[in-house]
Every structure is written in structure tokens, then in C-alpha cells.
């Protein structure tokens, strides 16, 4: 999780959660540009010094808040089939992306204006999901559902692009029928899987 290079100080988990919650609230209420560390500190009932001991600045704080959201999900289900695992996993990630949607909207212009924020978000938030996909695909190879592990990065990149396209451009829901379409009509041919 992003933090100041000099940060040796770990916050009490309840205090850290209060700060991360304040960041998320302010992002949706006033946006990234108008969100101040002073207001985060006030809402979280924390001092600015406490915040700066943990994070180097606003980009690090925001990245930490969104990174935590990506990690807040149940373990991936083992359904016994690659198709079932993909449907279960993508359904779960749809719920995560729906929760992140308002924050991403609040950050779109800031990412273009602040390259350091964009880099941090890519490294700590947007790059997530690969480890989970590797688990699913490696399990499929061991079961004989796939002859060899595919390029996991490509699979994750395509799925994320589809998720964000659906959320940001079409406004259509990430419902069960769409997840099945994504798995059967896009991921299956990408993997070369016959199922």
C-alpha cells in the first residue's frame, strides 16, 4: 500500500480506517481536486501529522483508499470447472468495480492532470486482479481444462477493459447475463478453451 518512504509508523487499524473512509467520502462529495488533507484530518478526527507520518501526500492517500477496496472481497470460489470459476470470479469483481465506480469518476480528470497519481493508481489499484486470475487459470491447467497457462496479463486486461467500458461508457448493468456473455463469448475464445 502506498506510503511515505520514511514512514515507519503504523497507525492503529481503527484510526487508519477512519482516514480511508474520510478520503472515500470526500472523493465522492467534492472530488479529488477540492479534497484537502485538512478536511480529511477533520473528518477522521486525526491530525495532519498523523496522516503525513503514514502517507507522503494526497495521491498516496487516495491510492491507499482505493487499494483497500480492491482487497475487500471473499476468496475466489473453486466451482470445479474453468467456466464456473470464471463466472464466479468475474461476478465478484463486478461488485468490486461497482463499488469503485463513483471514486473512479471523481478521479478521471485528476489522473490526466497528475501523472504521479495515475502511476500510483496503476501500480496499486489497476494492476490488481492478476494474482487472482493466475490462481483460477493455474487450477484449470491442473484440472485439465486448459492445456497450458495463458498470458494472464492479457486475460485480465481484456476483462478490465470490458468492465470499465460497460460501467463508464454504456451505463448498462454488470449483471449475470453480461458476465456469462463475457466468459462465453470473449474469454473462452481468448483462452482457446472448448468447454
What do you see in this structure?
By secondary structure, this protein is mainly α. It folds into two domains: 13-68, Orthogonal Bundle (Arc Repressor Mutant, subunit A), CATH 1.10.10.60; 73-191, Tetracycline Repressor, domain 2. Helices cover 74% and strands 0% of the residues. The protein contains nine helices and no strands. Helix 8 runs antiparallel to helix 9 (176-191).
Give descriptors for this structure.
single chain, 195 residues, mainly alpha, Arc Repressor Mutant, subunit A, Tetracycline Repressor, domain 2, 9 helices
CATH fold label of the largest domain: Tetracycline Repressor, domain 2
Using the alpha-carbon principal axes, give the shape.
elongated
What is the strand content?
A: under 5%
CATH architecture of the largest domain: Orthogonal Bundle
Radius of gyration: 19 Å
Q: Average pLDDT value?
A: 87
Helix content: over 70%
Say how many strands there are. Answer: 0
Low-confidence segments, given as residue ranges, are 4-8
Count of discrete domains: 2
Order of helices and strands: HHHHHHHHH
Secondary structure tally, helices: 9
**What class, by secondary structure content?**
mainly alpha
Query: Could you give the distance between the termini?
Result: 38 Å
Largest sheet: none
CATH classification class of the largest domain: Mainly Alpha
The CATH homologous superfamily of the largest domain is termed Tetracycline Repressor, domain 2
GO molecular function, one term: transcription cis-regulatory region binding
Domain HTH tetR-type: 13-73
Keywords: DNA-binding, Transcription, Transcription regulation
Protein name: AcrR family transcriptional regulator
Amino acid at each position: 500500500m502506498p506510503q511515505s518512504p520514511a514512514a515507519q509508523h503504523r497507525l492503529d487499524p481503527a484510526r487508519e480506517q477512519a482516514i480511508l473512509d474520510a478520503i472515500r467520502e470526500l472523493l465522492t462529495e467534492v472530488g479529488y481536486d477540492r479534497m484537502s488533507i485538512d478536511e480529511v484530518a477533520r473528518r477522521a478526527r486525526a491530525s495532519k501529522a498523523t496522516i503525513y507520518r503514514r502517507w507522503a501526500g494526497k495521491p498516496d492517500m487516495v491510492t491507499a483508499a482505493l487499494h483497500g477496496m480492491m482487497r475487500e472481497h471473499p476468496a475466489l470460489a473453486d466451482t470445479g470447472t474453468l467456466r464456473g470459476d470464471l463466472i464466479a470470479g468475474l461476478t465478484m469483481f463486478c461488485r468490486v468495480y461497482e463499488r469503485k465506480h463513483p471514486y473512479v469518476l471523481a478521479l478521471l480528470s485528476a489522473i490526466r492532470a497528475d501523472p504521479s497519481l495515475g502511476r500510483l493508481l496503476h501500480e496499486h489499484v489497476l494492476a490488481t486482479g492478476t494474482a487472482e486470475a493466475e490462481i483460477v487459470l493455474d487450477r484449470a491447467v491442473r484440472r485439465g481444462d486448459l492445456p497450458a497457462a495463458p498470458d494472464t496479463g492479457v486475460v485480465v486486461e481484456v476483462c478490465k477493459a470490458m468492465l470499465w467500458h460497460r460501467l463508464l461508457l454504456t451505463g448498462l448493468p454488470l449483471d449475470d447475463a453480461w458476465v456469462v456473455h463475457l466468459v462465453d463469448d470473449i474469454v473462452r475464445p481468448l483462452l482457446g478453451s472448448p468447454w
